[in-house]
Amino acid sequence: MSDLSSADLYMLINLASRPLWLADADLSGATLQHVDLEGADLRRANLAGSNLGGANFRSAHLEGANLVRANLQGADLSGATLINADLRGANLHGASLEGATTGGMQFNSETLWPAEVDPEALGAVRADSKEWLGAS
Questions:
Q1: What is the pLDDT of residues 23-32, one digit of tens each?
Q2: CB count in 10 Å sphere of residue 56
Q3: Is residue 48 within 8 Å of 69, Cβ to Cβ?
Q4: What is the pLDDT of residues 62-74, one digit of tens each?
Q5: CA 37, CA 34: separation in Å to the nearest integer?
């Protein structure tokens, strides 16, 4: 697993060849604002606490990704696959989820959704218990 936690990867990712393969990568706390991750393989990637605001995730593979407390404000997730992604505490305000493949996503009362989105209609599962949050 690649450990790129807390890195500012804007230039590296925007100059990289496509599609990007970042499955299982540790990108927790990374700054990826406005980067182009269209079609990227981010399955099971750890993006917890990352700043992904305004990023392009069109058709990206985010199955099982850890997006806990990630900033996805204004991100384009059109056509992305988000099955079993962990969105507890994530900010998706203003994000586009048009045509996204969803189901089994975890969210809690701290998750901020776009105004027009009903997470339960997307097959998301509320996970508000302390057990889910890792509290003792």
A1: 999 999 998 9
A2: 19
A3: yes
A4: 999 999 999 999 9
A5: 9
Query: Which two three-digit tokens encode residue 99?
Result: 């045509």
- The answer, yes or no, to whether residue 132 has pLDDT greater than 70, is no
60 closest CA partner among 28, 13, 15: 13
CB 95 within 8 A of CB 75: yes
The burial of 42, by beta-carbon neighbours within 10 Å (0-12 exposed, 13-18 middle, 19 or more buried), is given as buried
Alpha-carbon torsion 40, 43, 46, 51, what sign? Answer: positive
DSSP secondary structure of 102-122: --S-EE-TTPBPPTT--GGGG
Q: What is the pTM of this model?
A: 0.84
